[in-house]
Records
---
Amino acid sequence: MINGMVMKIIATIEARMTSSRLPGKVLLQAAGKPMLEHLVNRLRAVPSLDGIVLATTVNATDDVLEEFSRRVGIGCFRGSEDDVMTRVIGAAESAGADVIVGITGDCPIIDPQIVEQTIRMYKLNQADYVSNALVRSYPDGMDTQVFRLTTLQRSAAMTDDLFDHEHVTAHIRNHPEIFSQVHLVAPPEIHWPSLGLTLDEPKDYELLKKIIEHFEPCNSLFSCLDVVRLLHNNPDWVAINQDVVRKNVA
């Protein structure tokens, strides 16, 4: 319930098999499960979520992701590869969402409590857009964005820019004079913005696989704090992917 109204809150996961730097990355295995399944299981642990839908493309290469969605019991919407904004809108509409929790498929160890915190911050404010990703403070890979479907639809109607349509919330983020915003900052114990926990390149897969298999099966929902403590104690692990260059989208 938000402002006295019952709202359906749906997580959309943007994913496709044709990543330029690491093709098929979302189905790479760790502890006997695809990375995407680890992400889905974590989102299922978020109390405020009413559902999850995979937003993938109509490309034949992504048939396997539709099959994955059926196997794990989440929704699937297929749309344009390049117009990701319209794809996410379609995914949210297909699930009957009022509020979108935007997640990308390259965040397999996202912390459910951080996602929940971002949703609760959205519920408590009148802002159009709430995120922990624009002000870099959390480790990269904990990125969560929360906004109404109607906000994204309004944004889409205001821009034909290809960049905006490729990067779903870029138009919203770049126009705070139009869309009110709240940005979360990490608490000191997990403040590590230079730490890369996203699945972009082979070295990221090597690190994330080590992290997941360190905690599995005893603690499959390990927290961001658990990871930070683990990596502070294993600086050689941090070195595995520290030279990977991240794409920062403004």
---
Amino acid sequence: METDARRVPWAVGVAIVIGVVAFSWPLFLRPDSGMSATQAPIMFAIVLPVVLAIVLSEVAGGRMDAKVLAMLGVLAAVGTILRPLSAGTAGFELVFFIMILAGRVFGAGFGFTLGAITLFTSALITSGVGPWLPYQMLASGFVGLFAGLLPRASGRAEIVLLAGYGMVSAFAYGWVMDFSFWPFGIGSDTQLSFDAALGPLENLHRFVLYNLATSMGWNLGRALTNAALIVLLGVPLLRLFRRSARRAQFVPSTQPAPLAE
């Protein structure tokens, strides 16, 4: 049976709150306030327990059994292998569509966990560990999380829904990743720079211009990749995931056991 997306564990709510704080701080704090890229180890120390808490809450709530845990490990391994093969050139990414389809079938908690683990393990094998990693884990986790909260649909409508979400989430991933480090990305003497003396709305306006000028091509490439892969592979993968999501049922045999000789 497919996981009910409306059943969201409390740990997912905690992850959302942490993500809002981690990505929106430039609107409210100065770069020298202590909440900066140098605090990445603290963010990393927060994200890992949250991922573990989500897994435990999913298991305790009956939304994740042995088969689903095994599928989590398999999909994380697949994503870890695919990410180095798609190094992000021109936004070409092969890992996000798997998070979207898996989050759709297995639920928000599974989607968040898969996204965070995939980015963590792939960073280890690609030497991609840095102050950006905990933010990547959160952002990719949210890609899978919100896929599990999409409205119900079936057939062609579901593929259209997921492809559209793949495009929107691709832009959102790029936006929040850029936004978390934007105050340090360029100097302070341009019209696109963060200015602590300005209000949140003016800084947000500057960020939009900065993002359009620097990241639009990458985000568009990621969006088109997500949509194309979901359209091409969505139907068979959704069928496979839903077959794996069915709980095992053990029915007593009606045949008498043979007598021992």
---
Amino acid sequence: MNIVCLDMEGVLTPEIWIAFSEASGIPELRRTTRDEPDYNKLMRWRLGILKEHGLGLKEIQETIATIDPLPGAKEFMDELRSLTQAVILSDTFSQFAQPLMKKLGWPTLMCNELIVAPDGEITSYRLRCENTKLSTVKAFQSVGYETIAAGDSFNDLAMIRASKAGILFRSTEAIKSANPDLPAVEEFDDLLRLIKENL
């Protein structure tokens, strides 16, 4: 039995923090897990910038409401889910992801949670578990699933490498160069083809 594990941002949807960086005019918020491998360091840095500018959950959610999935992502997910089980493993937060999950046809999402003060300030965050993507892939494997994983960032590499098949999708040149043994594709048709070959 197979289960396909997909990253969300950069694979199925635009990067939320990049979109918010553009909407807020704060270029520092463009930094993502493609740039910073240490997720906790990245999030502490982001929360510091939000606090400095007096921005909270409301402002980010207003930007997210304007974001659509990447062209072809909904059709890709529909076809993939007709072939096998699929789940999105993301380091995003439940308070960010719901509108995007609706636009993708409500696929299964496992992500993290923000801790928000009554005034809307994002004070911290709660990870679902340590090494969320790798831990989840290993848990699926422990109950009899073989995993196929695809992602674009540093934080996807562990789940990609732990799976029977791993694919880089729309990744950076630096990540592709550092992982030349991993297949790397740019189009949903090619991603679907590689997944089918491993089902």
---
Amino acid sequence: MSPRFLTLIAASALFSACGGASTDTASTRSLTIPFEAVAGSTAISCDASLQSLGLGGSSATLADFKLFVHDIRLVTDEGAEIALTLDEDNWQTDGIALLDFQDKGDNCNGDVKPVNTSVRGSVPDQPVVIAGIRFVVGVPSSHNHNNVATAPAPLNLPGMFWNWQGGYKHLRFDVRPDGGVSRPDDGGWSNTTWNIHLGATNCSPDPRVDPNTPEDVSCEYNNRPEISLDGFDDSASIIRIDYAALVIDNELSEDAAGAPGCMSGTTDPECTNLFDNLGMTLGAAAGPANTQSVFSVVLQP
């Protein structure tokens, strides 16, 4: 497969009435980047049975599967980055997009609802070869501590906001393992869902006191993985998110401590392997320290 060439379209020469001076007008082209979510070979959806998950080969059904992305850049074969300017709509605002694979409401127990499985925008037309793509998972610091009650879509979803942290869930992947979740050392503890909620922690001043000044909040652990993928062809590629690859080192039917699954707690034992697979180090402000294994590039069918 040969990488796509971005075609340079010459700008028109505009002549003024008084002398014929010309001004170049930059040319852009529209671009849609598709994503797909799978668990191994099974497409993520509310009706799917997700098999062979984690260390114990658990079976599970979906409860929620959403993530924010921003700072999307195409990468040329010479390593230069070309920023994608996102369109504005109900799924995208201020350069931030929400990808949503949960096709029913109410934790997959409700009626069929819309999903969003692509990002849409424009790039400058340039005579370059596109060979890769980069983006950041999550909501940027400039928007992370908005008031969710007054924020524009898609930043107005209460389910993607962390009230106890005063910020957004950069990523929310929740499943219901068959048989539920237990703690071997606590016979009375059980939960129906095994959750992955990725978000910034150790933030100050406390954004819950005044959620209207996000620019004043600083977080010790931002927990925004930057994804860099080679072999991306903007005319023929899909970005795949593999939940099975994310949880491959975890036991979904059990929980050792902390929140059920992982909610980005720096001492939560379930978080360590998940952070590793996302290319981060749990409790480390700088990263990534590891190679992520969750996102990949595949050919469109």
